[in-house]
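Practice problem 4.
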């Protein structure tokens, strides 16, 4: 009978509800990471993340959180379960945004003050290369096959296509003023580049060899909102390639765009100065960081509607989610 009860207990344990996921929010002014439970939408922890944490991402296996500590000139690393700080990574000066390749081995980091993209090995914690790019590099995107990394340079107004095979720039594409973010579709066939001051998203089709061709631009118009407030910054596209969501900065809106026709379908009112975005792993929700209202907005992706806000730390900048 004891073994029967034990078996029943084991079955109950493994058939129970799955553990809730987490959202990690970097608070640029508060120098902390807020940890939000994505089932209850409550902040369950907050920890020190270095000075001026901005870009934030997660290792492919979900066990490590990487944070651009911009004023510390390094990437800080944390255990995603215990929040223990692990050995940091070299980043070059003033890291702002970065991307991690699907293998988890290399980080590609934009160094805003030094006009470089730094390539860092996450296992040996060494710098593999420094790639000169345009003035004030910020945005980073990576193709799904990891053969290309795209850097956007704010002052040069270009998207630089860097081959990950030899760390050289193969293509330079002029975009509108102050490009901020680069986002590939999941199949790698299209790239979106946001331009904050230009007020547009440049759309590029990508051929089989990774070469880009500009095929259109998306602009925005919201009744009652001054055009200069419509500042595209963060962007995310659904895995099926049907919807593009664009954070519009001080307009306090997220634009919903048909990613095929490039038509703007709607605008979702969120918190103040919306900056970066991330889907939960199941793409059920999209989270926005709102720097001036010190909160994140939770958007129901199917409904394309905001359903709640969650207060976090001071001046939330980036967000990443894990299961």
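Answer key:
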């Amino acid at each position: 009978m004891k073994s029967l009860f034990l078996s029943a207990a084991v079955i109950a344990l493994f058939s129970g509800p799955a553990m809730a996921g987490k959202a990690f929010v970097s608070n640029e002014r508060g120098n902390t990471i807020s940890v939000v439970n994505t089932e209850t939408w409550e902040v369950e922890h907050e920890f020190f993340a270095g000075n001026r944490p901005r870009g934030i991402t997660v290792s492919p296996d979900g066990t490590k959180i990487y944070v651009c500590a911009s004023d510390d000139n390094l990437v800080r690393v944390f255990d995603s379960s215990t929040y223990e700080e692990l050995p940091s990574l070299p980043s070059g000066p003033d890291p702002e945004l970065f991307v991690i390749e699907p293998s988890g081995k290399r980080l590609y980091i934009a160094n805003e003050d030094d006009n470089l993209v730094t390539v860092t090995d996450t296992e040996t914690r060494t710098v593999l290369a420094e790639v000169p790019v345009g003035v004030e590099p910020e945005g980073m995107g990576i193709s799904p096959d990891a053969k290309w990394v795209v850097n956007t340079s704010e002052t040069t107004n270009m998207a630089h296509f860097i081959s990950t095979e030899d760390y050289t720039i193969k293509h330079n594409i002029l975009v509108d003023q102050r490009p901020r973010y680069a986002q590939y579709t999941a199949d790698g066939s299209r790239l979106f580049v946001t331009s904050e001051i230009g007020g547009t998203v440049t759309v590029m089709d990508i051929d089989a060899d990774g070469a880009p061709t500009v095929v259109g631009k998306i602009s925005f118009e919201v009744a009652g909102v001054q055009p200069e407030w419509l500042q595209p910054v963060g962007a995310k596209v659904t895995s099926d390639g049907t919807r593009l969501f664009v954070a519009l900065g001080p307009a306090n809106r997220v634009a919903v765009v048909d990613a095929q026709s490039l038509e703007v379908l709607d605008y979702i009112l969120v918190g103040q100065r919306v900056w970066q975005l991330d889907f939960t792993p199941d793409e059920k929700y999209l989270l926005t960081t709102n720097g001036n209202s010190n909160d994140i907005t939770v958007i129901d992706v199917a409904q394309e509607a905001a359903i709640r806000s969650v207060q976090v730390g001071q001046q939330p900048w980036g967000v990443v989610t894990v299961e």
